[in-house]
Design goal:
Low-confidence stretches: none
Radius of gyration: 25 Å
Structural class: alpha+beta
Order of helices and strands: HEEEEE
Largest sheet: 3 strands, mixed
Strand order of the largest sheet: 3-4-5
Number of strands: 5
Helix content: 25-40%
Mean pLDDT: 89
Length: 164
């Protein structure tokens, strides 16, 4: 009685490795697109939140937009009807706070706000991917402050994220 060992041949192993490589090449780009789609969705939610809080501030402050952001800003402290800030609630400082903190930009991780007092959003968007948000205190416009594509992100249909 002869005993033979059964094992995989080198060719069989190579074929399995090649098939796994092809499957990985097909699946991995889909995961990276899903990650980008999640960031786009998050930007849309954050921009909607920021815009709604800016509009609420405006409604409570004689149709005037906030002019300061961040720590000790008009959106994260208590304010009076004139927009003066205070750390605690009083009968005079009865409005706000509108935000507990500025949400980080999902593409850059920055929660900074570039405040301008007029003018249009810069052509081409931000200079780099190290910015947070862009805000025009004259018009109340707020945007995700990133470069235009291809340097900056785009939605699945190709729309620049900084135009949302």
């Amino acid at each position: 009685m002869s005993r033979t060992k059964q094992a995989f041949t080198l060719i069989e192993i190579l074929i399995v490795v090649i098939i796994l490589g092809i499957l990985a090449a097909v699946v991995i780009p889909q995961f990276s697109e899903a990650s980008n789609d999640t960031r786009v969705s998050s930007v849309m939610t954050d921009v909607k939140l920021l815009r709604s809080q800016i509009q609420l501030y405006k409604a409570q402050h004689n149709e005037v937009y906030p002019t300061t952001w961040g720590p000790s800003g008009q959106l994260d402290m208590y304010t009076d009807v004139s927009g003066n800030t205070n750390a605690t609630y009083t009968t005079t400082f009865r409005f706000g706070p509108y935000l507990l903190r500025v949400p980080p930009n999902p593409f850059t991780g920055q929660n900074t706000v570039t405040v301008v007092a007029g003018g249009d959003y810069p052509a081409g968007g931000a200079a780099d991917m190290n910015q947070g948000w862009w805000y025009n205190s004259a018009t109340g416009e707020v945007r995700c402050h990133v470069p235009d594509p291809p340097a900056g992100p785009a939605t699945p249909d190709g729309t620049a994220v900084n135009t949302l």
